[in-house]
Amino acid sequence: EMQLRLDKRVFNVGKDLSSTGGNAAELLDNVPSVNVDIDGSVSLRGSENVRILIDGKPSGLVGLSGNDALRQLPSNMIQSVEVITNPSARYDAEGEVGIINIVLKKEKQKGINGAVELQGGYPTNYGASLNLNFRRKKVNLFTNYGLSYRSGPGSGSNYQIFTDDNGNELIYSSEREHCRGGLSNNIQFGADFLLNPKNTLTVSGLYKHGKNPNSASVIYEDLDGNGVVTNKTTRTETETEIRHNIEGALNYTKSFSKKGQKLT
Hints:
By secondary structure, the chain is mainly beta. The protein has helices spanning 24-29, 68-71, and strands at residues 2-4, 9-12, 34-36, 42-44, 50-54, 78-84, 98-104, 111-121, 125-135, 139-163, 169-196, 199-224, 229-255, 262-263. The chain is 4% helix and 61% strand. A seven-stranded antiparallel sheet has the order 8-9-10-11-12-13-14, with no helix packed on it. It has a five-stranded mixed sheet with strand order 1-2-6-7-5, with no helix packed on it. It is elongated, with a radius of gyration of 23 Å.
């Protein structure tokens, strides 16, 4: 579901089954005018000079540029995606093509509300998420938790033919197989204190942990014009990405009588 606002387009995730079990990178890739390449780099209207925010603020959840961090944020923790191509004075976006704001879920119904989701997929895509809140007259307690384990295989090949000055053919080829993924945990928790109908104080915390073992094997071959291998090299790559992130925030919001006008 898309909503048009004065300075942005809002894409509500809701119960869209196409987003279930995915991650933030896959979710963004389904948003019109947004593209996420194989390395996880995000571009808006063809430019990578885009700023990514979480709940309207910079966050270590996506780091400075997003990339692999977006793959570690489960889509079922996301309420909506805002695409802001003409940022107002509320955002510091000088020199940028626009802003993508990822809004995390936070229930606002009174009483105790929550949801648990489990998902599985092939190849190696498992996850679980919990959204829970407890709201009374003046206080709203909320938490989101996402756990996912993914392992994505991939492959590629390259074949080139060159002709030297003597007319002899030289052939170069490569075959690559790789596997990327791992385990990630994301938890957000906090409380809204409703001082009065127009003033709210929010205290929140966030913890993220991820461990991603990535591996690749590349075989290079040089061949002569008859297809006979003259040289062969095998390269093996292994890396482990470990991510820790802890954040805390204190936010004050004052609403005014004019719709959409507020001080944060």
